């Protein structure tokens, strides 16, 4: 499943999804985005505005988590 994790922070909810999914995470704060990537190095991490990314890419994902 392709998952979009908006406003990902350091991935508190991400740990529940396992490693069998393709996850793209979006975080505005570059320091927090780096911490997320350190914890989940196989995820695609986008440092930017989650709302803007959602508007442009929502059709690419099977599941969207926003919190």
Query: What distance lies between the first and last C-alpha atoms, to the nearest angstrom?
Result: 19 Å
* SSE order, one letter for each helix or strand: EEHEHE
- The neighbouring-strand order within the major sheet is 3-2-1-4
Biggest beta-sheet profile: 4 strands, parallel
Using only C-alpha atoms, the radius of gyration works out to: 11 Å
Q: Approximately what portion of the residues adopt beta-strand conformation?
A: 25-35%
Work out the helix count. 2
Helix content: 25-40%
Given helix and strand content, the structural type is alpha/beta
**Which blocks of ≥5 consecutive residues have pLDDT under 50?**
none
**Could you tell me the mean pLDDT?**
96
- Strand element count: 4
- What is the global morphology? globular
